[in-house]
Design goal:
332 residues; alpha/beta; Peroxisomal Thiolase, Chain A, domain 1; 2 domains; four-stranded mixed sheet; 11 helices; binds coenzyme A
């Protein structure tokens, strides 16, 4: 069966940079606490009226297409991972479809939060492996900053999350030795409420009301300790699963690109895998946690910095809301 391969990767983040000092003017926090607990120094937040999920993902897609030496007309299908779409209905895949010169191709939205990009990549991979499509665009994009409680009540999560978009173009590999080797997807819904956004939910008589806004139930809520404890276990499990499946060893990894949840989580995984600094790519320091967009943004930056080369074994891994977790191993 043919393999799929990443042909081009791009990203786009809003211009507005928010520092930890900026946050300390909105809530009771400080630079030292944020850097020590999360590793984040700055992040990008959108500008209302200027940036949208569609505009950010359009720019990321244009870069990915250019690097793949392809045009929108060459794309057969769109898989779009976001939990913060521009509209409640329809999904963001179709909004992107109308922005560029795509044919009337299918567009699918994926709502798997921080694992969303790897889930989306896995779906695109199956389409290419079976021969149904030749070139699939995979996007991860989020505007989280408008879902954050920027008062003292929300300070443990609002210092972490950020905005941005990343995109990859996937196509058939021309060599047996390169491409996506495997993807591994998991969930455990019993922890859904440990990291979630309750409203606007459809099981209320009215989805939006002044009372609901007053209650703050539309803000992202996170039990940071629970997320941390589960993340460090599941990241390791799902990376090991990918290595075992491909009969590879942790020492074979050339570059680990973990979902940028929190620098301490990445450092824990790095230590457990005994990987040197140059084999782990982190950019949470200046990007924050952009949920489904962290991995394609990091991959795009790593590629720009010459840290991804032909033949490299790249490991992607993510954990987040659901809980869901996932990994992908690919030979560049
Ligand atoms: N600034 C200053 N103090 C803060 C703060 C902030 N932004 N947020 C919380 N605090 C305070 C708490 O109120 C608490 O104070 P207290 O001891 O007086 O009660 C103290 O810091 C410790 O709070 P706690 O929530 O136990 O901190 P923590 O060490 O667990 O760190 C997280 C909080 C969120 C950074 C940490 O739990 C974490 O990294 N979790 C994983 C989150 C993650 O990766 N999410 C993304 C998933 S994809």
């Amino acid at each position: 069966m043919r393999k799929s391969k990443i042909l081009g990767v791009g990203h786009c983040v809003p211009d507005r940079i928010v520092t930890n000092d900026d946050l300390s003017k909105m809530m009771d926090t400080n630079n030292e606490w944020i850097v020590e607990r999360t590793g984040i120094h700055t992040r990008h937040w959108f500008t209302p009226g200027k940036d949208t999920i569609t505009s950010l993902s359009k720019k990321a897609t244009e870069v990915a297409l250019e690097r793949a030496n392809l045009s929108a007309k060459d794309i057969d299908f769109i898989v779009f991972a976001t939990i913060t779409p521009d509209y409640f209905i329809p999904g963001n895949g179709v909004l992107l479809q109308r922005e560029l010169d795509f044919e009337n191709i299918g567009a699918l939205d994926i709502r798997n939060a921080c694992s969303g990009f790897i889930y989306a990549l896995s779906i695109a991979d199956q389409f290419i492996k079976t021969g149904m499509y030749d070139r699939v665009l995979v996007v991860g994009a989020e505007i989280q900053s408008s879902a954050l409680d920027k008062s003292d009540d929300g300070r443990s999560s609002s210092v972490i999350f950020a905005d941005g978009a990343g995109a990859v173009v996937l196509g058939p590999s021309t060599s047996e030795n390169s491409g996506i080797l495997s993807t591994h997807l998991h969930s455990q819904g019993q922890y859904a409420e440990e990291l979630y956004c309750k409203d606007p939910g459809s099981s209320r008589e009215v989805r939006l009301s002044p009372e609901l806004i007053e209650s703050g139930s539309f803000f992202l809520k996170m039990n940071g300790n629970a997320v941390f404890k589960h993340a460090v276990v599941r990241f390791m499990e799902v990376i090991q699963e990918a290595l075992d499946y491909n009969k590879l060893d942790k020492s074979d990894i050339d570059l680990l690109i973990p979902h940028q949840a929190n620098l301490r989580i990445s450092q824990y995984i790095q230590q457990k895998l005994e990987l040197p600094d140059e084999k782990v790519f982190n950019n949470i320091m200046h990007m924050g946690n952009t949920t489904a967009a962290t991995i394609p943004i990091a991959m795009s930056e790593a590629w720009e910095q010459g840290k991804i080369n032909e033949g490299d074994l790249i490991c992607l891994a993510a954990f987040g809301s659901g809980f869901t977790w996932a990994s992908a191993l690919l030979r560049w």
